[in-house]
Specification:
There is one protein chain. Helix 3 packs antiparallel against helix 4 and helix 21 runs antiparallel to helix 22. By secondary structure, this protein is mainly alpha-helical. The relative contact order is 0.04. Helix content is 78%, strand content 0%. Among the domains are: 119 residues, Serine Threonine Protein Phosphatase 5, Tetratricopeptide repeat (Alpha Horseshoe), CATH 1.25.40.10; 88 residues, Tetratricopeptide repeat domain (Serine Threonine Protein Phosphatase 5, Tetratricopeptide repeat, Alpha Horseshoe), CATH 1.25.40.10; 67 residues, Winged helix-like DNA-binding domain superfamily/Winged helix DNA-binding domain (Arc Repressor Mutant, subunit A, Orthogonal Bundle). It holds the Pfam family GerE.
């Protein structure tokens, strides 16, 4: 049987590459078509396939090169509309990569081609999208919405589902800016259905998901965020070489992983986000990634690493609150924690921004023994949760109110709120938060004289914190449970070790008295005895001693 000629082999490889594109085998498509291109230059149609496949596997620079060549060939051939579409995708990729000057240049080229051609075509809708986004960014969502709507109508008229999806996405973002939250989420749901059903080109997937998850984060709609994350992940599994997540959505994915207790995965995703968002430099979302890393370090008790991450996040323009104040609380620096969280609350510009700070504010005010401020904050959080009807926020509100009621000595009412919060965290699948509320439930049981109930709740919380690696919380539980101490206790009684452990978790004397159900005067006497026996002079020295001698 005769061997195929070089020309025949090239044609076979070309056909295979085109078929791989149809089958969504993006890496194989890229490899096959670039192999042909090395032997003889591809035409504009195949260059566009190379450019789009390259983008989908994360080879952005090769994508831009291929699409630029395709644009040049189409423009020289007088095919203005197709060249303009090529210019749009170039602008789309460059804008998403943070290269706004280059992206703007390609968009201007595409617009000029269409103006010179003067024809009614679907490409008019594509070039309308960046202009609408520009107007949205200047604070005119109503005008932007109208422009997105025009683009959507062009997509429908020319039966172009990808354009329709991108325009609908823009309408959702504009609706959010207009305060129309329900309309915004409904429009983005529509886009995500189109993406996961394979009705639009996969290049839209990442940006649609990013917009969806940002809106979900802003409105505390974590159920919807999780649902679409799962759906899109399943869709991506059919395209193993696809790289759909490239920007800020990586950070939000890390936040979801953290919430659901996958802390190592969350750290890995946050690291990936920081790396991707650092090139090109200057993207402010890198600060968000660093903040998530700081949160994970803090929860694991790696306080020095947490401090560095918060400082670096602040350098990139992301405010390190409430994490930094909670870090100060964990370091037993209650005054610094109070100052930081109060300033953050004063600067919070709107209701949702305050809602993100209020749970930490309640916790810190309780540690500072300012029950009036803690109650006021818990009530504000409950009002915001009622306004938004968001299960996540409602659970936070029940959690905070339960903590306040416990500090006020109302164990029965506290237990009612805290059990409601625990059920909410279970439904959301937030193991760390569920563990924290079980500690409070245990303390409420102790307040009501049910020591067995307290022991069981603390034991359940201890297991959660061990699984997660939440060292500071584990130390607190051990202190509350009164575990057997080591020789490093240096003559301290079991109760004094309990007090020392709670001092090391940043609790004030009043907070310790509440948790151990003893008087504040008794706590002060224990603290004085600890300082005398261990030859210490401050709570910070006591904290350092407790950690150095593995008492926590």
């Amino acid at each position: 049987m005769p061997h195929a000629s070089a020309g025949e082999q090239e044609l076979d490889t070309l056909a295979a590459g085109r078929e791989c594109f149809v089958q969504h085998a993006w890496a194989d498509c890229y490899e096959a078509l670039t192999a042909v291109d090395r032997e003889s230059p591809l035409g504009p149609d195949d260059l566009q396939l190379v450019g789009l496949a390259a983008y989908l596997i994360g080879r952005e620079s090769e994508s831009v090169d291929a699409l630029a060549r395709a644009y040049q060939l189409l423009a020289e051939a007088g095919e203005a509309e197709r060249a303009a579409r090529c210019g749009f995708w170039l602008a789309f990729e460059l804008f998403n990569a943070g290269e706004f000057a280059r992206g703007g240049g390609w968009l201007a080229r595409a617009q000029r081609l269409l103006e010179d051609a003067g024809r009614d075509c679907v490409e008019q809708g594509y070039v309308l999208l960046p202009r609408a986004h520009q107007i949205l960014g200047t604070g005119d969502p109503a005008t932007a919405y109208a422009m997105f709507d025009r683009a959507a109508k062009l997509g429908e008229r020319f039966h172009e589902p990808t354009l329709t999806a991108l325009a609908t996405l823009g309408k959702g973002q504009a609706s959010m800016e207009l305060g129309q939250t329900r309309r915004a989420t409904a429009l983005l749901d529509e886009v995500m259905v189109a993406v996961t059903a394979g009705e639009v080109f996969p290049i839209v997937a990442g940006i649609a998901y990013c917009a969806m998850i940002i809106i979900c984060q802003e409105t505390f709609d974590l159920r919807r965020a999780r649902e679409w994350t799962t759906a899109l992940s399943l869709w991506c599994e059919s395209q193993p070489d696809l790289v759909p997540y490239r920007g800020q959505c990586l950070v939000h994915r890390a936040q979801l992983m953290q919430l659901h207790g996958a802390w190592p995965d969350a750290m890995e995703e946050a690291e990936r986000a920081r790396e991707r968002l650092s090139d090109p430099p200057g993207q402010p979302a890198v600060g968000m990634a660093l903040y998530v890393m700081g949160e994970l370090y803090r929860l694991r008790g790696e306080f020095a690493a947490a401090e560095n991450a918060y400082r670096e996040a602040n350098h990139w323009g992301h405010l390190p609150q409430p994490g930094l104040s909670l870090l100060r609380l964990a370091q037993a620096r209650v005054d610094a924690a109070t100052t930081g969280i109060k300033r953050a609350m004063e600067e919070a510009p709107w209701q949702l921004a305050r809602a993100r700070l209020l749970p930490a504010y309640v916790e810190i005010m309780l540690a500072a023994a300012d029950l009036a401020a803690a109650r006021a904050a818990a009530e504000e959080l409950a009002e915001t949760a009622a306004d938004l009807a968001a299960p996540y926020l409602q659970t936070l509100a029940a959690d905070s109110l339960g903590a306040v009621l416990l500090a006020e000595g109302n164990g029965k009412a506290a237990l009612e709120e805290l059990r409601r919060a625990w059920a909410g965290w279970q439904q959301i699948d937030a193991p760390y938060e569920a563990g924290r509320v079980r500690v409070l439930i245990g303390l409420a049981c102790r307040r009501l004289g049910d020591e067995d109930g307290c022991e069981m709740e603390l034991d359940a919380a201890r297991w959660v914190f061990q699984e997660l690696g939440a060292i500071p919380d584990l130390a607190r539980v051990e202190a509350l449970a009164g575990k057997v101490v080591t020789e490093a206790a240096c003559g301290l009684t079991d109760r004094e070790v309990q007090v020392l452990r709670l001092v090391a978790t940043g609790r004030t004397n009043r907070a310790i008295s509440t948790e151990l159900v003893i008087s504040e005067k008794t706590v002060a006497r224990h603290v004085s005895n600890i300082f005398t026996k261990l030859e210490l002079s401050s709570r910070s020295e006591a904290t350092a001693y407790a950690y150095q001698h593995s008492l926590v």
